[in-house]
């Protein structure tokens, strides 16, 4: 995404900020950006002796600042601070050494902080913002963003893929940039000299996610096709324990009920992600599916789920058979 392009631009110009803060949900993007930054330092020091990685949980701020201020035989150094917890409530680490360092950072060192979450109101965050550059690495949110990202990844590998195939590939393999990237690498090997990657290719190589299988199962329920629903159920059961499958089904039914409730209140799909705590991409899929499943049907389905949950935990019956009976009732 654009954050990686920013890092590439900085390294291409040789103008690395003395301080970086990288944070966000997408660890794959952060790792990709780190590979770019690391390569810049390896150009002048192939041994990597000028690169140090430390954990904020094990090394004090004072010691980290000492590392950042120390000189190297080579002109530039990179000090990476992982597992940063300085923004969490109740953080007891003495951050004064950082505040002092950030007022006048060592220009020959890039001090890179890696965090999952930040608090923009904290003094430490503001000091970092003044001293260097802050980048948030987030996964694509909307369907169009996922397609655009995947287009670049496919193009980078010298392949092509239709937009329809890309959308199906994302649904099939899940919304995880790291997983999708790995699966694309496998598809490049699988397709060999053939330039186009097809739906048949990724279905042959990539394992369908359980979540995608559950969605497919509920699609069959919406069409009242007991045969297709049971077939989908057994596909899911080959991947996960029956209790996990039931938990996923209960979650999906509750989300579908949430979509129907929003629609009844005159709300639209754009409000579903924040209201239901899901991604925009998942919201789009669930909203469309909920159009074919009435609130009454979903309520009965949820009650059946809860009865099956009790039976799984107390009756000692065959879990697969109990789930199969439940799905057939769904379709009635």
From TrEMBL:
What reaction does this enzyme carry out catalytically? DNA(n) + a 2'-deoxyribonucleoside 5'-triphosphate = DNA(n+1) + diphosphate
Q: What is its EC number?
A: 2.7.7.7
Q: Which family does it belong to?
A: Belongs to the DNA polymerase HolA subunit family.
**Which GO BP terms apply?**
DNA-templated DNA replication
Tagged with keyword DNA damage: no
GO CC term (a single one):
DNA polymerase III complex
Name the enzyme's class.
transferase
Span of domain DNA polymerase III delta subunit-like C-terminal:
211-330
A Pfam family per the record: DNA_pol3_delta_C
Organism equals: Desulfosporosinus acidiphilus (strain DSM 22704 / JCM 16185 / SJ4)
Q: Which UniProt keywords apply?
A: DNA replication, DNA-directed DNA polymerase, Nucleotidyltransferase, Transferase
Q: What protein name applies here?
A: DNA polymerase III subunit delta
State the Gene Ontology terms under molecular function. Answer: DNA binding; DNA-directed DNA polymerase activity
InterPro entries hit by this protein: DNA_pol3_clamp-load_cplx_C (IPR008921), DNA_pol3_delta-like_C (IPR048466), DNA_pol3_delta_N (IPR010372), DNA_polIII_delta (IPR005790), P-loop_NTPase (IPR027417)
Q: Where is the DNA polymerase III delta N-terminal domain?
A: 20-136
């Amino acid at each position: 995404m654009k954050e990686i392009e920013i890092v590439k631009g900085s390294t291409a110009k040789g103008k690395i900020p003395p301080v970086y803060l990288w944070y966000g949900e997408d660890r794959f993007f952060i790792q990709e950006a780190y590979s770019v930054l690391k390569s810049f330092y390896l150009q002048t020091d192939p041994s990597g002796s000028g690169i140090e990685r430390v954990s904020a949980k094990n090394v004090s701020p004072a010691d980290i600042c000492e590392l950042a201020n120390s000189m190297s035989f080579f002109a530039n150094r990179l000090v990476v601070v992982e597992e940063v917890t300085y923004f969490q409530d109740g953080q007891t680490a003495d951050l004064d050494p950082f505040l002092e360092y950030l007022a006048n950072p060592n220009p020959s060192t890039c001090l890179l902080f890696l965090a999952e979450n930040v608090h923009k109101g904290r003094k430490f965050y503001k000091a970092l913002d003044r001293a260097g550059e802050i980048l948030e690495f987030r996964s694509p949110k909307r369907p169009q963003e996922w397609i655009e990202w995947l287009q670049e990844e496919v193009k980078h590998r010298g392949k092509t893929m239709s937009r329809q195939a890309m959308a199906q590939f994302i649904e099939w393999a899940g919304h995880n940039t790291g997983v999708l990237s790995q699966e694309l690498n496998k598809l490049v090997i699988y397709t060999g000299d053939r330039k186009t990657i097809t739906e048949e290719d990724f279905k042959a190589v990539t394992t369908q996610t359980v979540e995608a299988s559950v969605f497919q199962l509920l699609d069959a329920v919406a069409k009242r096709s007991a045969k297709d629903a049971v077939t989908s159920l057994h596909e899911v059961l080959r991947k996960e324990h029956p209790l996990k499958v039931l938990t996923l089904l209960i979650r999906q039914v509750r989300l579908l009920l949430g979509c129907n409730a929003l629609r009844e209140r005159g709300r639209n799909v754009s409000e579903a992600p924040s209201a239901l705590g899901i991604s925009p991409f998942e919201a789009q899929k669930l909203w469309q599916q909920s159009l074919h499943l009435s609130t009454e049907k979903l309520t009965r389905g949820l009650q059946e789920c809860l009865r099956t949950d009790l039976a799984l935990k107390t009756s000692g019956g065959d879990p697969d058979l109990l789930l199969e009976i439940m799905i057939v009732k769904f379709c009635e």
